Amino acid sequence: MVKPVRRIVTGHDSQGRSVFLEDGPAPHPFSPSHSPNVGLTNLWLLDAIPASNREGEPDPTARPFRLEPPSAGNVVRIVEFPPDRERNYGNQAEVFRQYGAAQAHDEAARHPGFHKTQSVDYAVVIEGEIWALMDVGETLMTVGDVLIQRGTNHAWANRTNRIARVLFVLNGAAPA
Hints:
6-stranded antiparallel β-sheet, mainly beta, globular, 3-stranded antiparallel β-sheet, 1 helix
């Protein structure tokens, strides 16, 4: 079971004062059917920057899950990575199809999770540790480490016995 993520959203009341509009579990977590122990929770999504802060707009995460952010916007998400030995890496092409990013998957790479997105991503480890893999090289990331992923082919490997949680901010970008 994927750990729920508390999401607190602010806004304004009728007098223009700042208020809390929401405080509870993020309403739209996603787990691919083929890997139900992988959790992807979009916390917020912007279709474009500058963003609108108008009241009454629908929750921007109430839409089908997509791996990549909008081309002119961004998405903030937490990904829960189970240990690799507990993860189903079969049929990754189908998993990436479910992510709306079949073109991103790299079947020929050295790890089944390799993919390449048209984005600039900030990845911050918030629990556990995870290996960031590139075509050439890899590095261990621990709590507090930040990786700036710039449209490169990459994968994530959890070689431990416990969950790794990573906060991502994915920003739309032109192809590398």
